[in-house]
Write a structure and sequence with these properties.
The chain is an alpha+beta fold. It is built from four helices and nine strands. A hairpin with a 5-residue loop joins strand 3 and strand 4. The longest helix has 27 residues. The protein is globular and about 40 Å long.
Length: about 210
């Protein structure tokens, strides 16, 4: 015969068994709310993809320009460069770079006694880059591609501007970016060339 103490214990165990069964039935019908928390956190933790990409190249029609003045106080030079590109150095060899550091334009205002064609040939021979490929060299402009160890495939366009019919070179303009940026880089180079303002008498400081 069970004592009152044993009877109370059996009733407690029976109640716990019924409670577990009811709880299991509720989970089976409604699903486990705790099980849904973890996947929700994983989904929400994924970063939202960026809307700005540079994979399609520099678009010429998206560029706006602003005039920049450089050179020296006695021989100032000005040209239009893309708006927002900041100067990393001034003086006779200024360089303007876009905020992301992908594209750039630089000038060398020191001039040269050599013709643009000779300077193009010299530049092509002096470039020491991996997988160098000279695309063209005409009208005082050298276009080339290469592979940068850190940035991957790159493209450069260097133009030597003459003011005396090709006897010497007054200024060098070089733009740089990636091969897929070619159309935009050409536009930047043309805009800089067309807007270029040189002093009336600019002496040549480079020996060749």
């Amino acid at each position: 015969m069970l004592t009152p103490r044993h009877q109370a214990l059996l009733m407690t165990l029976a109640g716990m068994t019924v409670g577990v069964a009811v709880f299991g039935s509720v989970l089976a019908i409604n699903g486990n709310p705790l099980a849904d928390d973890k996947p929700a956190e994983i989904v929400n933790s994924q970063p939202t993809p960026g809307t700005t990409t540079r994979s399609d190249g520099l678009q010429a029609d998206s560029l706006r320009y602003t005039e920049q003045t450089f050179g020296t106080e006695k021989a100032p030079v000005s040209a239009e460069v893309p708006d927002g590109w900041k100067s990393s150095q001034a003086g006779t060899r200024p360089r303007f770079i876009d905020p992301a550091g992908v594209w750039q334009i630089r000038f060398d205002t020191r001039g040269s006694e050599s013709s643009p064609d000779k300077l193009v040939d010299n530049r092509a021979k002096s470039i020491d880059e991996q997988d160098l490929d000279v695309v063209s060299r005409a009208d005082g402009t050298l276009i080339y591609t290469y592979v940068d160890q850190n940035r991957g495939p790159r493209m450069g366009l260097s133009r030597f501007v003459t003011t005396d019919g090709g006897e010497s070179s007054a200024i060098e303009i070089t733009v740089g970016g990636r091969p897929q940026d070619e159309a935009g880089l050409r536009a930047v180079l043309e805009r800089a060339t067309q807007s270029l303002q040189l002093p009336s008498s600019s002496g040549d400081n480079r020996p060749n």
